[in-house]
Amino acid sequence: MVNVHIDPSFDDEERRRRLFAGDVIVYTHVPEIAAFAEFTRGLITEVFAPDEPTAVHTRRSKDELADLLIDFKPKFIHHPESIAHVRKVVSALGVGAEQIHADVPKLRTAFPAGGLNTGIAYAFQAHRDTWYAAPKAQINWWLPVFPVEPNNIMEFYPRWFGREIPNNSGDYNYYVANAWRGHIKDFSGAKDTRVHPAPLEPLGEGEPRLTLVPPVGGVMLFSGDQLHASIPNTSAATRYSIDFRTVHVDDVHSGNGAPVADVRCVGTALRDFRRLSDLADFTEEEVAPYDSADAADGPKVYVPS
Ligand SMILES: [Fe+2]
Fold this sequence. Notes:
Helix content is 24%, strand content 14%.
Protein backbone atom coordinates (compact mmCIF):
# COMPACT_ATOMS: atom_id res chain seq x y z
CA MET A 1 0.00 0.00 0.00
CA VAL A 2 1.27 3.45 -0.92
CA ASN A 3 0.18 6.45 1.11
CA VAL A 4 0.29 9.94 -0.36
CA HIS A 5 1.00 12.73 2.10
CA ILE A 6 0.10 16.29 1.15
CA ASP A 7 1.95 19.08 2.98
CA PRO A 8 2.80 16.88 5.97
CA SER A 9 4.32 18.37 9.10
CA PHE A 10 6.66 15.48 10.00
CA ASP A 11 10.41 15.99 10.13
CA ASP A 12 13.04 14.73 7.69
CA GLU A 13 13.75 11.51 9.57
CA GLU A 14 10.10 10.51 9.52
CA ARG A 15 9.85 11.65 5.90
CA ARG A 16 12.72 9.39 4.84
CA ARG A 17 11.31 6.46 6.80
CA ARG A 18 7.99 6.81 4.97
CA LEU A 19 9.57 7.32 1.56
CA PHE A 20 11.67 4.16 2.01
CA ALA A 21 8.44 2.32 2.91
CA GLY A 22 6.95 3.38 -0.45
CA ASP A 23 4.96 6.48 0.42
CA VAL A 24 4.92 9.54 -1.83
CA ILE A 25 5.00 13.06 -0.41
CA VAL A 26 3.77 16.25 -2.05
CA TYR A 27 4.44 19.80 -0.91
CA THR A 28 2.11 22.12 -2.76
CA HIS A 29 3.48 25.60 -2.08
CA VAL A 30 7.11 26.15 -1.24
CA PRO A 31 8.47 29.62 -2.10
CA GLU A 32 11.95 28.20 -2.79
CA ILE A 33 10.47 25.71 -5.27
CA ALA A 34 8.50 28.47 -6.96
CA ALA A 35 11.73 30.48 -7.26
CA PHE A 36 13.56 27.51 -8.85
CA ALA A 37 10.72 27.04 -11.36
CA GLU A 38 10.69 30.76 -12.16
CA PHE A 39 14.44 30.83 -12.72
CA THR A 40 14.13 27.85 -15.07
CA ARG A 41 11.18 29.33 -16.97
CA GLY A 42 13.31 32.39 -17.60
CA LEU A 43 16.16 30.36 -19.10
CA ILE A 44 13.82 28.24 -21.26
CA THR A 45 11.94 31.27 -22.52
CA GLU A 46 15.22 32.86 -23.57
CA VAL A 47 16.39 29.74 -25.42
CA PHE A 48 13.21 29.34 -27.46
CA ALA A 49 12.43 33.04 -28.02
CA PRO A 50 10.37 34.24 -29.76
CA ASP A 51 8.41 30.98 -29.53
CA GLU A 52 6.26 30.07 -26.57
CA PRO A 53 8.14 27.22 -24.80
CA THR A 54 5.11 24.95 -24.35
CA ALA A 55 4.27 25.26 -28.09
CA VAL A 56 7.82 25.05 -29.43
CA HIS A 57 7.22 21.59 -30.97
CA THR A 58 4.82 23.25 -33.44
CA ARG A 59 7.50 25.70 -34.61
CA ARG A 60 10.76 23.72 -34.74
CA SER A 61 11.79 20.44 -36.32
CA LYS A 62 12.86 17.46 -34.20
CA ASP A 63 16.47 18.00 -35.30
CA GLU A 64 16.40 21.65 -34.33
CA LEU A 65 14.91 20.79 -30.94
CA ALA A 66 17.52 18.06 -30.35
CA ASP A 67 20.33 20.52 -31.17
CA LEU A 68 18.91 23.24 -28.95
CA LEU A 69 18.37 20.89 -26.02
CA ILE A 70 21.77 19.22 -26.34
CA ASP A 71 23.26 22.67 -26.00
CA PHE A 72 20.87 23.98 -23.36
CA LYS A 73 20.35 21.09 -20.91
CA PRO A 74 24.01 20.93 -19.77
CA LYS A 75 23.99 24.72 -19.33
CA PHE A 76 21.02 24.40 -17.02
CA ILE A 77 22.48 21.41 -15.17
CA HIS A 78 25.81 23.10 -14.49
CA HIS A 79 24.51 26.64 -13.97
CA PRO A 80 25.84 27.70 -10.56
CA GLU A 81 22.40 29.01 -9.65
CA SER A 82 20.80 25.62 -10.32
CA ILE A 83 22.61 23.82 -7.50
CA ALA A 84 22.12 26.91 -5.31
CA HIS A 85 18.37 26.49 -5.83
CA VAL A 86 18.62 22.82 -4.85
CA ARG A 87 20.39 23.85 -1.65
CA LYS A 88 17.69 26.41 -0.82
CA VAL A 89 14.86 23.96 -1.53
CA VAL A 90 16.36 21.25 0.66
CA SER A 91 17.02 23.70 3.50
CA ALA A 92 13.47 25.07 3.23
CA LEU A 93 12.18 21.55 3.81
CA GLY A 94 14.17 21.17 6.99
CA VAL A 95 17.46 19.44 6.20
CA GLY A 96 20.94 20.81 6.83
CA ALA A 97 23.10 21.20 3.72
CA GLU A 98 25.97 19.46 5.58
CA GLN A 99 24.00 16.22 5.78
CA ILE A 100 22.64 16.03 2.27
CA HIS A 101 24.40 15.10 -0.95
CA ALA A 102 22.62 15.84 -4.22
CA ASP A 103 23.34 15.24 -7.87
CA VAL A 104 22.95 18.04 -10.39
CA PRO A 105 19.33 18.93 -11.22
CA LYS A 106 18.06 17.70 -14.59
CA LEU A 107 15.63 19.48 -16.85
CA ARG A 108 13.21 17.10 -18.58
CA THR A 109 11.18 17.85 -21.65
CA ALA A 110 8.25 15.75 -22.86
CA PHE A 111 6.99 16.70 -26.29
CA PRO A 112 3.45 15.83 -27.38
CA ALA A 113 2.99 12.43 -29.02
CA GLY A 114 4.84 12.16 -32.32
CA GLY A 115 7.54 14.60 -31.22
CA LEU A 116 11.18 14.04 -30.27
CA ASN A 117 11.23 11.26 -27.66
CA THR A 118 14.66 9.64 -27.97
CA GLY A 119 18.16 10.54 -26.77
CA ILE A 120 18.16 14.02 -25.23
CA ALA A 121 14.35 13.87 -24.80
CA TYR A 122 14.08 10.18 -23.93
CA ALA A 123 10.61 9.22 -22.68
CA PHE A 124 11.31 6.88 -19.79
CA GLN A 125 9.34 3.66 -19.80
CA ALA A 126 8.44 1.92 -16.52
CA HIS A 127 11.60 1.74 -14.43
CA ARG A 128 13.10 2.12 -11.02
CA ASP A 129 16.00 4.57 -10.72
CA THR A 130 17.68 1.86 -8.65
CA TRP A 131 17.84 -0.29 -11.82
CA TYR A 132 19.96 2.58 -13.17
CA ALA A 133 22.40 2.26 -10.24
CA ALA A 134 20.76 4.81 -7.94
CA PRO A 135 21.67 4.17 -4.30
CA LYS A 136 18.89 2.63 -2.17
CA ALA A 137 18.80 5.77 -0.01
CA GLN A 138 18.01 7.97 -3.01
CA ILE A 139 15.08 10.34 -2.79
CA ASN A 140 13.74 11.85 -6.00
CA TRP A 141 12.44 15.40 -6.09
CA TRP A 142 10.20 16.23 -9.07
CA LEU A 143 8.79 19.66 -9.80
CA PRO A 144 6.93 21.18 -12.74
CA VAL A 145 8.31 24.29 -14.42
CA PHE A 146 5.09 25.20 -16.26
CA PRO A 147 1.62 23.95 -15.25
CA VAL A 148 1.22 20.22 -15.92
CA GLU A 149 -1.76 17.99 -16.67
CA PRO A 150 -2.47 14.33 -15.85
CA ASN A 151 -1.81 13.47 -19.53
CA ASN A 152 1.69 14.93 -19.77
CA ILE A 153 3.31 14.06 -16.48
CA MET A 154 4.50 10.81 -14.84
CA GLU A 155 2.90 7.90 -13.04
CA PHE A 156 3.70 5.35 -10.37
CA TYR A 157 2.89 1.64 -10.28
CA PRO A 158 2.46 1.32 -6.52
CA ARG A 159 1.69 -2.41 -6.54
CA TRP A 160 5.36 -3.14 -7.22
CA PHE A 161 7.00 -1.21 -4.42
CA GLY A 162 9.22 -3.65 -2.53
CA ARG A 163 8.02 -6.48 -4.76
CA GLU A 164 10.13 -8.24 -7.35
CA ILE A 165 9.21 -7.83 -11.01
CA PRO A 166 11.26 -9.64 -13.70
CA ASN A 167 13.48 -7.03 -15.38
CA ASN A 168 16.69 -6.60 -17.37
CA SER A 169 18.57 -4.38 -14.90
CA GLY A 170 21.30 -7.03 -14.92
CA ASP A 171 22.25 -5.82 -18.43
CA TYR A 172 22.93 -2.30 -17.17
CA ASN A 173 26.40 -1.19 -16.11
CA TYR A 174 26.51 2.38 -14.83
CA TYR A 175 30.08 2.93 -15.95
CA VAL A 176 29.31 1.80 -19.51
CA ALA A 177 26.33 4.19 -19.42
CA ASN A 178 28.66 7.03 -18.37
CA ALA A 179 30.62 6.45 -21.58
CA TRP A 180 27.39 6.81 -23.63
CA ARG A 181 26.59 10.14 -22.05
CA GLY A 182 29.27 11.87 -24.09
CA HIS A 183 27.53 10.73 -27.31
CA ILE A 184 23.94 11.70 -26.61
CA LYS A 185 23.43 13.02 -30.14
CA ASP A 186 23.98 9.50 -31.50
CA PHE A 187 20.98 8.33 -29.51
CA SER A 188 18.66 11.25 -30.34
CA GLY A 189 17.65 10.07 -33.82
CA ALA A 190 15.37 7.24 -34.91
CA LYS A 191 17.17 4.67 -32.81
CA ASP A 192 18.05 4.83 -29.14
CA THR A 193 20.26 1.77 -28.70
CA ARG A 194 21.28 2.32 -25.07
CA VAL A 195 20.30 -0.28 -22.46
CA HIS A 196 17.22 0.99 -20.64
CA PRO A 197 16.30 -1.29 -17.74
CA ALA A 198 12.61 -2.19 -17.79
CA PRO A 199 10.21 -4.96 -16.77
CA LEU A 200 10.56 -7.98 -19.07
CA GLU A 201 6.79 -8.05 -19.62
CA PRO A 202 4.97 -4.77 -20.32
CA LEU A 203 2.56 -3.71 -17.57
CA GLY A 204 -1.04 -4.56 -18.44
CA GLU A 205 -3.93 -2.21 -19.18
CA GLY A 206 -5.42 -3.00 -15.79
CA GLU A 207 -2.23 -2.12 -13.88
CA PRO A 208 -3.08 0.17 -10.94
CA ARG A 209 -1.53 3.57 -11.60
CA LEU A 210 -1.05 6.62 -9.45
CA THR A 211 -0.65 10.07 -11.01
CA LEU A 212 -0.10 13.13 -8.86
CA VAL A 213 -0.31 16.60 -10.38
CA PRO A 214 1.57 19.12 -8.24
CA PRO A 215 1.13 22.81 -9.02
CA VAL A 216 4.02 25.03 -10.12
CA GLY A 217 5.70 25.90 -6.82
CA GLY A 218 5.07 22.37 -5.57
CA VAL A 219 7.21 19.24 -5.52
CA MET A 220 6.78 15.47 -5.31
CA LEU A 221 9.18 13.32 -3.27
CA PHE A 222 9.52 9.59 -3.80
CA SER A 223 12.01 6.81 -3.35
CA GLY A 224 14.28 6.03 -6.31
CA ASP A 225 13.06 2.45 -5.89
CA GLN A 226 9.47 3.31 -6.94
CA LEU A 227 8.42 1.81 -10.25
CA HIS A 228 7.43 4.82 -12.38
CA ALA A 229 7.34 6.13 -15.97
CA SER A 230 6.88 9.24 -18.08
CA ILE A 231 3.32 9.20 -19.41
CA PRO A 232 3.20 9.56 -23.21
CA ASN A 233 2.31 13.20 -23.63
CA THR A 234 -1.18 13.30 -25.18
CA SER A 235 -1.71 16.98 -24.30
CA ALA A 236 -1.06 19.83 -26.72
CA ALA A 237 1.73 21.28 -24.58
CA THR A 238 5.40 20.42 -24.15
CA ARG A 239 6.01 19.50 -20.53
CA TYR A 240 9.06 20.87 -18.70
CA SER A 241 10.00 19.52 -15.31
CA ILE A 242 13.03 19.47 -13.05
CA ASP A 243 14.17 16.53 -11.04
CA PHE A 244 17.05 16.04 -8.71
CA ARG A 245 18.08 13.33 -6.31
CA THR A 246 19.37 13.45 -2.76
CA VAL A 247 20.80 11.09 -0.19
CA HIS A 248 21.22 11.70 3.53
CA VAL A 249 24.72 10.95 4.75
CA ASP A 250 23.39 8.96 7.75
CA ASP A 251 21.51 6.61 5.40
CA VAL A 252 24.59 6.09 3.24
CA HIS A 253 26.62 5.21 6.34
CA SER A 254 23.99 2.99 7.96
CA GLY A 255 22.78 1.23 4.80
CA ASN A 256 19.25 2.51 5.38
CA GLY A 257 17.02 2.84 2.34
CA ALA A 258 14.39 1.28 0.09
CA PRO A 259 13.96 -2.50 -0.37
CA VAL A 260 15.74 -2.81 -3.80
CA ALA A 261 14.04 -6.21 -4.17
CA ASP A 262 14.95 -6.82 -7.81
CA VAL A 263 17.97 -4.64 -8.59
CA ARG A 264 20.72 -6.42 -10.54
CA CYS A 265 22.65 -3.60 -12.24
CA VAL A 266 26.40 -3.12 -11.98
CA GLY A 267 28.05 -0.07 -10.42
CA THR A 268 26.68 2.83 -8.39
CA ALA A 269 25.73 6.42 -9.09
CA LEU A 270 26.74 7.46 -5.56
CA ARG A 271 29.88 9.26 -6.79
CA ASP A 272 27.60 11.76 -8.59
CA PHE A 273 26.23 13.06 -5.28
CA ARG A 274 27.95 16.05 -3.73
CA ARG A 275 27.50 17.51 -0.29
CA LEU A 276 25.32 20.59 -0.61
CA SER A 277 27.28 22.66 1.92
CA ASP A 278 30.63 22.49 0.09
CA LEU A 279 30.16 20.20 -2.97
CA ALA A 280 32.46 17.54 -1.46
CA ASP A 281 32.28 14.03 -2.93
CA PHE A 282 31.78 10.83 -0.98
CA THR A 283 35.07 9.12 -0.28
CA GLU A 284 35.87 5.80 -1.95
CA GLU A 285 35.52 4.18 1.50
CA GLU A 286 31.97 5.50 1.74
CA VAL A 287 31.15 4.35 -1.80
CA ALA A 288 32.77 0.90 -1.54
CA PRO A 289 29.82 -0.94 0.12
CA TYR A 290 27.62 0.16 -2.79
CA ASP A 291 29.94 -0.67 -5.65
CA SER A 292 29.99 -4.01 -7.41
CA ALA A 293 33.13 -6.10 -7.30
CA ASP A 294 32.78 -6.76 -11.04
CA ALA A 295 32.24 -3.12 -12.01
CA ALA A 296 34.53 -1.85 -14.76
CA ASP A 297 34.39 -0.87 -18.42
CA GLY A 298 33.84 2.84 -18.26
CA PRO A 299 34.29 6.04 -16.28
CA LYS A 300 33.01 5.89 -12.69
CA VAL A 301 31.89 9.49 -13.01
CA TYR A 302 30.76 11.20 -16.19
CA VAL A 303 32.74 14.38 -16.87
CA PRO A 304 31.38 16.45 -19.77
CA SER A 305 34.03 17.38 -22.33
FE1 LIG B 1 13.16 7.83 -12.97
